[in-house]
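Input.
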Amino acid sequence: MVQTVKIRMTRDVEAPKGIGERIKQARIADGRSVQVLATLAGISSAYWYQIEQEKRSYVSEEHFRGIENVLGVDFGVSFDQGGSNNG
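Output.
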């Protein structure tokens, strides 16, 4: 029996300036609490606040996409081949 092997690709891209403020404004417009949104995104509320305040130097694509999904917003960050590859 052959098993499928998955290879994870990691790519670093720069988020647009002010992404934390944009996330905060989308959260406020959404009306749900940080605790609810963070739980739905699969992260802690402390981690969410650190992202909003741009106090994190690295956020995984999975967590960033989780934030976009729960807020229903595309913040325009591309992880495809067109993104800047720093690693």
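Confidence is low (pLDDT under 50) at residues 82-87.
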